[in-house]
Amino acid sequence: LVNVTSISWQQVLKCNIFGGLFSKYKCLLSKHGVLMKKLMKGIHTNRPKEAQSMMIRRHFMDLTHSFLFPLEQYVANTMPLQKDISPWKDAPRLREFDKEEFLKFVENADLPSRTGIKGDWISLYRLFCNTKTFTYWLKQRQTEVNTRLRMLHLEALAGATVDCTLQSKIEVEVVDFILKLRDALNFAESHRELVNEELLCRVNDHYRKALQYKMFISQTLSIGMTLWRKKVFQSAAVMVRRCYCKKLGPIDEECEEVKAWRGQLTDAEQERLKVAIYEYNLYKYADATLPSNLNVSHLRKLLLMDTKTLRLKYLTYLGKKEKRHVREEEKKREKIELGKQIKEKIQAERANAKHITYALGHNFIMRRIIDTTMNKIDDARLIFASMFAPKIVFDMGFLSELSPIETDLTWIQLREAYYVNRNHHTPFAVHLTDCNFHHPSWSESQRYFMGGLPTYMLDMDSENFTKLYDPRQLVYLSPDARKMLDSVEPDKVYIIGAMVDKPNKTNCTLGKAKQFNIAAAKLPIDKYVKWECGSKSLTLNQVLSILLEVNSNGGDWAAAFLKHVPKRKLVAKDTRVSKLIRQQNREREEYMLSLHQ
């Protein structure tokens, strides 16, 4: 026997024994009282043990399904859309699991509530994400989803129109397509139970055609590059000299406008123009992608450029615009032809029909609203916005510092921004400040704003924004700022730099804000969007669209970014192909510049 008189109270407490099961873990969920009552009632009523076990099993099955439902939903949201799966892109993969992003997703979504159990579900998910069970489940789920995505990509490859599409691809893209087909065939061989024979035969057929086309263009390019490097320069130089011996201008059929403009130039400008014309003719015969003709506006901009590299880049830009315009015109003609066919078909069906036609232009209950009426409604909204809506200022002070290409792109984006604001149901009051109306770049607005800027619902001023508004209300939007914009406040005036962000234009807008001692902020992109590739500098119309969306939807930045940020910046980019294309462009530029030493 133990001598109890020699044991202290602390020792007595340590020796006490209590019945039951104990755990050092904290209970995160409350007890399910309804289940316990049902089980106790079953014991009192002598319910069979099998029925009791079935109730417990059903309870834990529902609890498991409710617990896994947010995980399944989050994994489904990380999958790419089926419409984004293209045979000319890499096979899509499931995005990596982000625990913090998932916990935010659970907070915003409905918590597991099928079983009616309340508790700290967020902490439970946080603990579960660190267990081996979750790692095994996630690995199995990712494997299943990635296999499904590979199957969808295989079907897209099998359904691709190879014969017509390959002819419009460059050699690098053809090689990349062959690698995708080879990878798809390897996947099909390792998953024979999932791939049918017809699908496999079509992919094999595409692979054979792509290889044949690759051999053909390789032989053609090898012969063409040899002739190009040896003979093009000589023939182009001889042809250009022959043109100058005949005293021809930069264009074979020079219009009267160009002739009149050339007669107004000074001797120094004539010499610079002569060099630009020589380069244009030389490059045009060496590269078919350059523009077929130049007008006065193009020649005037070429005179402002000091280096041949800038002139070559500008000519390349004009060539791309011309080719894009030709493609758009071709698409318009095809669309018109298709519309005529559909119209003839509908007219034939209506002619044979014996009942009254109910359609636009015939018997219709709705009244047609003409474009003039819609324009008046939009202008009325802008007039109301100019008095009561928040202010958006476009700082036009950068316009005089931009290159001709950047000037064109800036005016295009300003035009898009104007119509985005005009068509929105809650537009901003747009104000252009620091306008230098006498600068040559300002005359370019006539090409993009029909009838000139004064005919549009815009406020324009040559004064600086600090003289027009209270500096305490001004917020300069800059991608280089440290502070993030939390919301669009109605009493603030937001300034957007009217410029195209290029690598050599970093910190310009932030420097402008510090120069005038006003607040600077950036859009909260990193907080709401997972950026994959490309610069985080958005175009002027995209920034304005995001601000309009946030102002109208009550501050939902995530929805605004997903709606207006280009999808290509939210998808992982194939850097291998991009590097090859950039290298090819650099080699082309170096060769073209070497023609004129």
TrEMBL record:
Assigned keywords, A-Z: Coiled coil, Methyltransferase, Mitochondrion, S-adenosyl-L-methionine, Transferase, Transit peptide, tRNA processing
Protein name: RNA (guanine-9-)-methyltransferase domain-containing protein 1
A Gene Ontology BP annotation from the UniProt entry: mitochondrial tRNA 5'-end processing
Every SAM-dependent MTase TRM10-type domain range: 378-572
Chief location category: mitochondrion
Cellular localisation: Mitochondrion
Any one GO molecular function term: tRNA binding
One cellular component (GO) term of this entry: nucleoplasm
